Structures are given as structure tokens and as C-alpha cells.
Amino acid sequence: MNHKEKQSITHYISIRFAAIILIMAAIMILFISYFSNKTIYFDIRRQIRRESRYDFLNVEVRNGKILVDKNFIFRENHVQKLVLDNKGRTIRGHYPDKELNNYPLNQWDFRRVKCSSGYYYIFDRPFLKKDIITNKQILVIIRNIGKETDFNSQYQAMKYISYTFTFVISIIGLLLIGAVSSRLTIPMKEIKDTADTIGIEGNLAKRIESATAFKEMDAMIQANNRMMDRLEDLFHQQQQFTSDVAHELRTPASIISAECQYLKKYGGTINDYMDSLTVIARQNAKTNEIITQLLQLSRLEQGRIKEDFEYSCLKDLIESICEAEPLRMQKQISVQYDLKNISIYMNISLMAIAIKNLINNAMKYSENQSFVKLRLWEKDNLAIFEIEDHGCGMDEETQKHIYDRFYRADKSRNTPGFGLGLSLVQKITELHKGSISVKSKVNEGSIFTLSLPKEAAISNMRSQEAF
Ligand code: ADP
């Protein structure tokens, strides 16, 4: 037995799928933040660089001195500007945070730096200016500084929208997983409850009625219900069988018991004893016949048959059985043979039982001096054996049940028999991988047809015990 603790399927599915969703959400957020930060960075860089493009027009150098025109705008669109000389010394302008003064000159470089008041971007734009006195080229730097929080990049909004979207999708995903996994378990719970009802109350008629949305679940429920139909059927058959056996055995048993009581009370002469013994022997033979046929059926059903198969002549077997049939003489039935010389692979003793039952029935359900026709021919590697009688025949309803154990048509009740013969014939035919069929008309007669493979198609026989 497996003692490992079992976990709930809802739990199992929810945890795994929730983990997948959370991992995917985390990856999405990392992805969004990486690419949006990059985009925001380039957007701010573009804004800051654009601001200082024409500033060189408002700066001039005179005799080595850098002079800033009054038109120079030191703060515009969140960008603070400072004019620096080639050593990085401030000529004009103010730093928005003193710590920014520590960052050395770096021409054309765009940097993101951290100060105690927040993140800033620095861009040092250089240009060469001609000294209007000495005509020498002097390097002038415009340092552009922007505070990160002052910039309003459209990408910033997109970043937060994407975060919110990922979060909402993840929550919806988690809720859906919870709903789906608990929906999955509803039919399972129903299956369990039904199984419990059957197990505890013994109510075999119970079925699972679940309108599940899942195809596989539906298939499982239907398979389960089919299995229950079959089990209920088998259970009823079993009940029917037990009551049939009891019923069939009770008649000879009560006759024997009545004979014994009679003998005890009134039996005096040897003749009384002889009469009673005859009755007892007849009833005993009947009981024996029922038991033998039941045993044969049960062995056939359980596959406990000796693999005693051989090629043998079917024609000879049919003829010898028909010749030995006592009813033939008793009822003066004439037999017409049309038998081809065909050998098939068969278990002779079982096939003899099948043929005997069919011939016996044909004569049993015919009037005296009637005639029976036996035909044997070959078609597509099959041996076809046909028994035609001109007896009472059967209606369609009767034909449906003749292979059921203990079934006897109402009008056959006055004829000896137990309703086991055709069940045996059917089982024996199946064992030989053959088939049986019947055509019949009430008061006109019946034709039983056995189709048997000639070759050894019998491969899956289990042998344990001699038949
Ligand atoms: P039994 O003959 O012992 O009653 P079977 O299993 O051989 O049992 O047959 C079952 C029933 O099928 C019979 O009771 C009878 O009603 C019907 N049946 C079988 N063979 C014939 C036949 N040749 N003609 C008419 N009815 C038949």
C-alpha cells in the first residue's frame, strides 16, 4: 500500500499554474522595465540635447574671456544650463544641486548621476568659438542639467500602464485557475459520491449525472456509467441464474423427496419400491443433466478447456450424431443429408455437444414423421452447417432470447429440456471462432446455421483442466 500523503488535485493544479503565471508576470515586468527605462533614457537625452543646440550663438570670446549674451536662457523646458571653460570651471550659471559640481567635464557625454536630491542627467556640449580680438579658437562648454523627475516622458506613462496590465492579467489568470481547477473536481466528487452510494447502500441503479464542460471528463463519466450498466446487468443475470438453477433443481428434488416419504408411509411390496426407484432414478438423471450442462457452460465461460483441438471430418461427426439420436426413431423423423466431405480444426467432444443439441432441438420441436434437412458446405474457408426443421418455429421475440441460460419459449414448456442447450452451442461456436444464426417462422420451422473456420484460428485458449 502506498502511504505517501495524497494531495488535492485543485491544489496541485492551482499551485503549479499560479507559479507559472507569477514567473511569467515577473519576466514581463523585468522586460517592460528594462525596455521602457531604456526608451525613457533616450527620450530625455533627445529632449536635453535639443535644448542646447543653438546656445553657441549667445556666447562670444573676447581677448580670451568668455562672455555670455543677455539673450542666453539659463533655464528652459526643465533644462538648467551652465557655461564652462575648457577646464570645466563655471563661467556663468548655477548648479541645481551643489554635488553636481563634483562631476568632471566630459565632452558630448550624456550621463545619469545620483545626488542626495535625486537623479540628474548631465550633457556637456562643446563648441569652438573664435576670439574676436586674437582670432584664436577657444573651447567653450555648455553643461545641460535636467532633473529626472521634471521630465514628462510619454513612455513613463506607458511603463506604468504595462505594469498595471500585467498585474491585472495575472490576477485574472489566478482567479481563472482557481475556478477551472474547482470545476474539474466537481464531476470527480460526483463520481466519488456515486461510488460511495453504490458501495455503502448497494444501490447498483445509481448513475453519475454530470453536465461537465470537459470532453475527457464526460468520456470518463460515460465509461463509468457504461461499466455500471454492465455490472448491474451481470448482477441481475447472476441473480436470475441462481433463482433459475434453484427452480430447475427444486422440481426433481421435491419429486424424489415425495417418493421417499410415500415409500416410508405406504411402500410395502417390492413393486412399490421398484416403481419409486424408477421415478427417483429418472429425476436423478434430470438433476445430473442440469448439473453437467451447467458445469460445461461454466468451464467454457472460464476458459477452463483442454487444448484438445485437431483436424477432423465434420461430415462423419454430424452423421454419427444424427444416427445415434434417439428422437429420430421415436418420432420417426426422416433425415435428408447433403453433406460435403469437410475437415475442420475442432475440439471433437465440444463440437459433438453443439451438433447434438442442434439436431436434438430440430427433432424435439418437430411433429412426429416430420423431416429434418442437414447441409454442410464450404464458403470462404468456412465450413457452413445448416439444420433445417419443419417444426413449431419461433417468433422474433423468442429468437432474441434463445441463447440466454434457462430461457424456454412458453410453448416449449411441455417439451423436455432446461433451456441450456443453445447457450452451450453458442459458447462452443465462439470458442471455435465461429458464429451461429437462426431463421425461423412460427409453425413453419427453423434453420440454424453454424459458420466455423476450417483452419486453426484458435490461439488464445487457456488450458487448465480436461473438459
Ligand atoms: P431447451 O431445448 O432445453 O429448452 P435450448 O437452449 O436448446 O433449450 O433452446 C432454448 C429455446 O429455444 C427452446 O426452449 C425453444 O423454445 C427454442 N428452440 C430451440 N431450438 C428450436 C427449434 N429447432 N425450433 C423451435 N424452437 C426452438
From TrEMBL:
**E.C. number, please?**
2.7.13.3
Q: Which UniProt keywords apply?
A: Kinase, Membrane, Phosphoprotein, Transferase, Transmembrane, Transmembrane helix, Two-component regulatory system
Q: Which SUPFAM superfamilies match?
A: ATPase domain of HSP90 chaperone/DNA topoisomerase II/histidine kinase, Homodimeric domain of signal transducing histidine kinase
GO function terms (MF aspect): phosphorelay sensor kinase activity
Residues covered by the Histidine kinase domain: 244-456
Q: Which residues form the HAMP domain?
A: 182-236
What this protein catalyses is: ATP + protein L-histidine = ADP + protein N-phospho-L-histidine
The enzyme's first-digit EC class, named in words, is transferase
Which terms in the GO cellular component ontology are assigned? membrane
Write out the annotated subcellular location. Membrane
Ranges annotated as spanning the membrane:
12-35, 160-180
Spell out the InterPro entries in the cross-references.
Answer: HAMP_dom, HATPase_C_sf, HATPase_dom, His_kinase_dom, HisK_dim/P_dom, HisK_dim/P_sf, Sensor_HK_Regulatory, Sig_transdc_His_kin-like_C
Q: Which PANTHER family match?
A: HISTIDINE KINASE 1, TWO-COMPONENT HISTIDINE KINASE
This one is known as histidine kinase
Q: Which organism is it from?
A: Anaerobutyricum soehngenii
